[in-house]
Amino acid sequence: MSRTAHELDHRIEGDDMQCVEITLDPGETVIAEPGALMMMDDGVRMQTIFGDGSGKEQSILDKVFSAGKRVLTGENLFMTAYTNESSSVRTAWFAAAYPGKILPLDLRRFNGQLICQKEAFLAAAKGVTIGIAFNKKLGTGLFGGEGFIMQKLEGDGMVYVHAGGTLVERDLAPGEVLKVDTGCLAAMTGTVQYDIQWVGGIRNSIFGGEGLFFATLRGPGHVWIQSLPFSRLADTIIASAPKAGGKRREEGSILGGLGNLLDGRDVR
Fold first, then answer.
1. In DSSP terms, which residues pair with 88 in a beta bridge?
2. Which residue, 20, 41, 137, 235, is most buried by CB atoms nearer than 10 A?
3. Of 37-51, 83-97, 180-194, which one has max mean pLDDT?
4. What is the rounded end-to-end Cα distance, in angstroms, of the chain?
């Protein structure tokens, strides 16, 4: 069965810090997030685009609406298209900004639709529509945090999604429920129903350290879970950064300032 989207070939390099090489035949285009490019061959033209990335004819109003939806997910207003304008095969390489795995996913295997975390989308074939998926339940909107507004990828082409840290996949049977930290939900098929559920219990809420809410996923469908959401990585880096005056957070109550002396820092 032929595709309406451009047909891309790829090769993934690396283990925990992966990058993907996408092969472009003459005239083929890959759409990517700004800043995702690693390198590209001569003959590939880079062009900033405004819209949903599908390549379909759109009015100015439709383009503004499509781009505005991306802003709601926390992504850039623009995307970048890389087109092979030469007469022979060329390549473009893309990489994520933090450790993890790159998932090459064919939308034809998932009934033409995937839902993914807002930082997860890396690149896609021209012809794939990148939009947003709203959960209409009020609780999800008010308390969902990272799990509330997710990106919706639709079409019949290849998409490349990045999951932070270690990746775990689960197949959910009809009615089967899985509770996931909202940031750890990397992606899921469109058949999975999701909502936000309170952790419950005052002690759990205050002292549990896991946030106040879970993402509750109900099958049938397939889900991809990431062990290191970008927000968790960022929070850890910020918490460990030097404080005002050049002093960092101590390495523990036992070492205290001794930790600074051991690594050569001035503790005056």
1. none
2. 20
3. 83-97
4. 70
Q: How do residues 100-120 score in pLDDT, each as one tens digit?
A: 999 999 999 999 999 998 788
Q: Which of 236, 259, 234, 255 is nearest to 247 (CA)?
A: 259
Answer yes or no: is pLDDT of 257 > 70.
Answer: no
CATH number for 9-228: choose from 2.30.30.60, 2.40.100.10, 3.60.160.10, 3.40.50.620.
3.60.160.10
Neighbours of 197 (CB within 10 A): 15
**If 0-12 CB within 10 Å is exposed, 13-18 middle and 19+ buried, where does residue 151 land?**
buried
Contact 171, 191 (CB under 8 A): no
Weakest mean pLDDT among 54-68, 184-198, 235-249: 54-68
State the amino acid at position 88 in one-letter form: S
Question: Tokens at residue 185, please?
Answer: 């939900």
* Domain extent listing, the chain: 9-228
| Three-state DSSP state, 262 | helix
Q: What is the pTM of this model?
A: 0.76
| Amino acid, res. 190 | G
